[in-house]
Q: What sequence folds into this?
């Protein structure tokens, strides 16, 4: 069973030790040493397993895990850390991790835990709620909130935001938005997308401190935490 693994670990020696061993065991490992960079990878790429250190520069591992789960990513995750207290382990599991291994560790145990998590089926329940950072969308009640603030959206704005939230971290092209939101299978040569993006941005971003809606010039739009 070959797994595509993201390892978020700032200690170079530990990262190389784990990466080399997992690669030799047949897995593919992408290693990063910064929490914020790791979060971007979690949201941009479909991994089979996440291995996350608790103490990280940029963004601590606990915050990374909470943001990953808040964004709807259900990829199995293992905390690999020197923080070993019972309360710390409970805190890590409650943040969304599936397993917890303390340093120093035996590689054979790490590999066994990785393989066990890789065999665990990913939860596949129907999505009724979408989250990106503190932005949430309830698909049943058709409501949107940023933190505790409810945001009033028109039906087309709601659908536009839903498409972007379902593709968190990925750039959605203007062509795809025309098809998904307006059911256009041709370019109407109007600024309908740009106009609605501007309206949406004024509601979900401008009143708040952190910008989530980003423009990739001549490509499209994406929803994610600032990089």
A:
């Amino acid at each position: 069973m070959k797994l595509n693994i993201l390892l978020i670990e700032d200690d170079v020696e530990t990262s190389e030790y784990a990466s080399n061993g997992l690669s030799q065991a047949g897995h593919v490992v992408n290693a990063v040493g910064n929490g914020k960079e790791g979060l971007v990878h979690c949201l941009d790429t479909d991994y089979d397993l996440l291995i996350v250190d608790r103490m990280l520069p940029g963004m601590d591992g606990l915050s990374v895990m909470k943001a990953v789960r808040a964004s709807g990513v259900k990829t199995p995750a293992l905390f690999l850390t020197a923080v070993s207290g019972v309360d710390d382990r409970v805190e890590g599991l409650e943040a969304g991790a599936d397993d917890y291994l303390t340093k120093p560790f035996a590689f054979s145990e790490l590999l066994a835990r990785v393989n066990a998590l890789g065999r665990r089926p990913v939860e596949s329940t129907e999505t009724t709620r979408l989250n990106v950072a503190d932005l949430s969308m309830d698909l049943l009640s058709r409501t949107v909130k940023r933190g505790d603030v409810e945001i009033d959206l028109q039906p087309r704005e709601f659908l536009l935001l839903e498409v972007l939230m379902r593709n968190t971290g990925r750039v959605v092209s203007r062509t795809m938005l025309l098809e998904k939101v307006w059911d256009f299978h041709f370019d109407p040569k109007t600024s309908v997308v740009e106009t609605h993006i501007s309206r949406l941005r004024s509601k979900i971003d401008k009143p708040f401190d952190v910008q989530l809606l980003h423009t990739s010039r001549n490509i499209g739009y994406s929803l994610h935490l600032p990089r």
